[in-house]
Amino acid sequence: SSRVVEIQSQMSERAVELLGLPEDRACLLLDVGCGSGLSGDYISEEGHYWIGMDISPAMLDVAVEREVEGDLLLADVGHGIPFRPGMFDGCISISAVQWLCNADKKSHSPPKRLYRFFSTLYTALARGSRAVLQLYPENSEQLELITAQAMRAGFTGGMVVDYPNSAKAKKFFLCLFVGTSGTLPKGLGTECANEEPHQAKFTNERTRFRNVKGKSVKKSRDWILEKKERRRRQGKEVRADTKYTGRKRRPRF
Fold it and tell me: Which residue intervals define the domain 18S rRNA (guanine(1575)-N(7))-methyltransferase Bud23 C-terminal in the entry (predicted)?
């Protein structure tokens, strides 16, 4: 329907805007879950080049019929991104990445598939570039899972939430940086809120006290802060962090 097409185009525009591409040159972008090539049309209009990946032959057939300008690849991104290192100046994805959270086959492990996707995407992106993935998470656990695997793969960045106070217009964009910690863009429609919107921010410093498996050492300050942050994201009441959070008490307190 034309309404779907319109929303799709708006989200593509927003995703490309969040990429913060250089204005003086044409870039090569990867479109993950490109479908019939609607986001690709916008990329082409902006004067950039693109390669689209999608798991659905039917959708790609439509893209071919529509004579889109990008190159198309039939592939499951859960198996990884099969391009040479540093090839892309950016990646966008509209409403696709949450599908990696589903185990469609017995052999599918969502965390493994997400990690494979993010780690190979990280390699395929040029240093200093970004990936902007718009997604429809089913719940906060899904957001956690996706974000955690992106961090494991080396990305920094976080979730940009547009219109967080509107049920209809609320949109999630996972904005990821490769090799540089950029400043996380502000979500649209957050100006009226006087407090910081609950965005999942993560930077390199969070990884200081991680054990081999990538988790923070249990009961450490980082572990406590992460747990509190998770609770906050789930909308629970949590006491504010202070310099005393996670501080060890003397034995004869």
Answer: 176-250
Asked, for residue 200, whether it belongs to a domain, the answer is no
Indicate the pairing of strand 156-162 with strand 201-202: antiparallel
Query: Distance between CA atoms of 42 and 236, rounded to whole angstroms?
Result: 40
172 and 241 both lie in a single domain = no
Q: Is the pLDDT of residue 213 over 60?
A: no
DSSP string for residues in 26-77: --EEEEET-TTSHHHHHHHHTT-EEEEEES-HHHHHHHHHTT-SSEEEE--G
Token pair in block for residue 222: 């980082």
- Band the pLDDT of 106: cuts 50, 70, 90: low
- pLDDT surpassing 50 at residue 235: yes
> Which CATH number covers residue 50?
3.40.50.150
**Which pLDDT belongs to residue 167?**
84
Residue numbers of the domain that contains 233 = 213-247
Residue 120 included in any domain:
yes
218, burial (CB in 10 Å: exposed 0-12, middle 13-18, buried 19+): exposed
- Better pLDDT: 243 or 213: 243
Cα distance between residue 202 and residue 56, in whole Å: 33
Distance CA 221, CA 227 (A): 10
15 and 107 co-located in one domain = yes
Count the domains in the chain. 2
Using the predicted structure, report yes or no on whether residue 199 has a pLDDT greater than 70: no
| Whether residue 96 has pLDDT greater than 60 | yes
Residue 89 pLDDT? 97
